[in-house]
């Protein structure tokens, strides 16, 4: 059986810590490292260029790179640089982020985020897979040629059915984030397949995000999610997703125990391994784990990463 891919989200307090974390994850046998747009690392693609030169096999992916903050040609050129350093190891996960942060920080006209994302995917995909693009859209104009295709996979974040359908139609994969696992299985995966069927192509892989904590104290693990991923239920896009998953008014309630139990994978090594393998059994192509720490953060994270590496190689 081929190795399963279970990647980890890398915390981003500063560039040197990120690089050390990626090197350590590779040494432990973790197959993929992912970075979000937060923290004080500055820019994920920039630090990935350094990580590519300091590692040998671990895959590097953005989850997500915010589309509004750079033109897709610029993103394609950055990915081209990293692909030249570490061929076959970089993946671009992109997404529109949130209205509040995009308008307040960057002053963008945050309208039609799904239409904006579709054009971004089309431009990036053309450059990645064909090495050229001639595109005039509602949101973007792009006319550019590269020396050769890079074949960097272009993936996108998704929360609601429509965005999973867009990924199925246009992208090289979809990435969920803090979605209840039953929602990913019963809503997201069928929507992804429907989009692919509409486009007349095979369904791309679904990367399933989950908070993971190898610790037998369930209440401590739940509190770890509240502390480390606390704001998500209170943001509008995520609140809509949670409502469709059966958890209404999450903007007011925050993380309830029921919500946490729907997304969190926690327990002993054997229990966590079983739950991770269930995701692959029902059709998840890959797992993106946020390692939730309890107590001694370094020891807790190490325990979780070791288990992830073991399951990946099983």
Short description:
The protein has 314 residues and is α/β, with parallel strands linked by helices.
Order of helices and strands: EHEHEEHEHHEEEHEHEHHHHEHEH
CATH C-level label? Alpha Beta
State the helix count: 13
Helical amount = 40-55%
Could you give the order of strands across the largest sheet?
Answer: 1-2-3-5-8-9-10-12
User: Unreliable runs, pLDDT <50, ≥5 residues?
Assistant: none
The biggest sheet amounts to:
8 strands, parallel, barrel
Task: Compute the number of structural domains.
Answer: 1
CATH superfamily: Luciferase-like domain
Rg calc: 19 Å
| Structure summary, number of beta strands | 12
Q: In oligomeric terms, what are we looking at? A: single chain
Distance between the termini: 8 Å
Task: Considering the chains and any ligands shown, give keywords for the structure.
8-stranded parallel beta barrel; 17% strand; 314 residues; alpha/beta; TIM Barrel; globular
Note down, in words, how this protein is organized:
The protein has a single domain, classed as TIM Barrel (Alpha-Beta Barrel), CATH 3.20.20. Helices cover 49% and strands 17% of the residues. The protein contains 13 helices and twelve strands. The strands form two sheets. An eight-stranded parallel beta barrel has the order 1-2-3-5-8-9-10-12, surrounded by eight helices. α2 packs parallel to α3, α6 packs across α7 and α12 packs across α13. It is globular. The relative contact order is 0.13. The mean pLDDT is 94.
């Amino acid at each position: 059986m081929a190795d399963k891919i279970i990647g980890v989200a890398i915390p981003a307090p500063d560039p040197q810590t990120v690089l050390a974390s990626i090197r350590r994850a590779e040494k432990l046998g973790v197959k993929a490292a992912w970075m979000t747009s937060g923290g004080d690392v500055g820019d994920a693609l920039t630090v990935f260029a350094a990580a590519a030169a300091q590692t040998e096999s671990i895959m590097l992916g953005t989850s997500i790179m915010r589309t509004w903050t750079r033109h897709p040609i610029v993103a394609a050129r950055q990915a081209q640089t990293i692909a030249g350093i570490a061929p076959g190891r970089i993946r671009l996960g992109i997404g529109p982020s949130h209205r509040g942060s995009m308008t307040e920080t960057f002053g963008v006209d945050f309208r039609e985020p799904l239409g904006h994302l579709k054009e971004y995917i089309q431009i990036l995909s053309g450059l990645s897979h064909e090495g050229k693009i001639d595109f005039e859209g509602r949101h973007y104009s792009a006319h550019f040629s590269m020396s050769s295709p890079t074949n960097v996979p272009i993936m996108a974040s998704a929360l609601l059915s429509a965005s999973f359908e867009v990924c199925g139609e246009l992208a090289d994969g979809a990435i969920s984030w803090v979605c209840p696992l039953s929602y990913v299985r019963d809503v997201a995966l069928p929507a992804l397949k429907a989009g692919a069927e509409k486009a007349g192509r095979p369904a791309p892989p679904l990367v399933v995000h989950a908070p993971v904590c190898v610790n037998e104290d369930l209440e401590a693990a739940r509190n770890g999610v509240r502390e480390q991923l606390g704001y998500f239920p209170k943001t509008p896009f995520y609140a809509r997703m949670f409502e469709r998953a059966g958890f209404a008014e999450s903007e007011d309630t925050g993380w309830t125990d029921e919500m946490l139990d729907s997304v969190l994978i926690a327990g002993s090594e054997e229990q966590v391994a079983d739950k991770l393998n269930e995701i692959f059994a029902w059709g998840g192509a890959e797992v993106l784990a946020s390692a939730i720490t309890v107590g001694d953060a370094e020891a807790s994270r190490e325990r979780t990463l070791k288990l992830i590496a073991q399951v990946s190689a099983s």
